[in-house]
Amino acid sequence: MMFGNASSGQRPLIVFTDQTDLDPVPGRRLLEAAGFDTMLLSLMTERDVPAEARRAVGLVVGYASIDQDIFDAFPDLAIIATTSAGFDMVDVEVAERRGIWVCNLVDAATQEVAAHALALILATERELRAATSVTANGGWTDDVSVVPRRLSELTLGLFGFGRIARQLATIASPLFGKIVAYDPYCDAYPAHVEGVSFGELLTQSNVLSLHSPLTDDTRGIINTAAFAKLQMGATLINVSRGELVDQDALIEALDSGRLRGAGLDVLDAEPPSADHPLRRHPKAIVTPHIGFLSDASLQHYVLDPSRTIIDWAQTGAPARFVVRGSR
Known about the structure:
31% of the residues lie in helices and 16% in strands.
């Protein structure tokens, strides 16, 4: 494949952005062995792009916002590979107009995120935060004031039914009395899951677990009106995107008792401020966005974006993509 800067005699450049929670070295080595140059940038705005980086043909993106200005800074850009299943940090409309491939990670941490969702469900439903507080403060059985619910008498609701939600439904099915799911893009559900409308999902769920990508349609969709439709004393689980939930409405629902509890691996702003009210809320269990994390998944996160770019360079098209490019 010929690149926009091939006539200069330089090797094509791939820029890694904001790799704060992953080690980019293995992925960079893989690309360099395949004939690319690589560079690591803290990419926040167009002004953060040095002149020597503007010849890049590809980006490996963590959380940096890839907006119109960033696209303008890379005139030869042909492919973007994210280090996550989510790709909401990329302005896909601009990518489509410019013929730039956008590729996300698929199945890198399906097992891990599904297991983490189940762990949060069990931790909240078994009231582990309150129970461990009793123990830490010197108490024992007679000091427990919150009685857990029996899972087999509850309905688990899934907002979104992609790979992670399907995995969760499989491993949670023996525990729950019923599992329902809403996904406007899903035409068929397995026998142990009942497809329902969004309204029915809210009214039927004792435990609501979020597994939807962040889009203009889903941003803030779990709001005051949605909480009002949930069964009194429901539990909310979010291992997807924090922005799916109106955080003020969530805190109000917890404080009022509308929600029994919340298990959260994501918040609306990350990292959250030290005084974020959900960090220490007595009815919330919050983990620091580690649902994806395992020794095996880390290998996928650091290597698969680079493999995707090599695949594109060698064949002209990556095997999987969310925006089809023409470069």
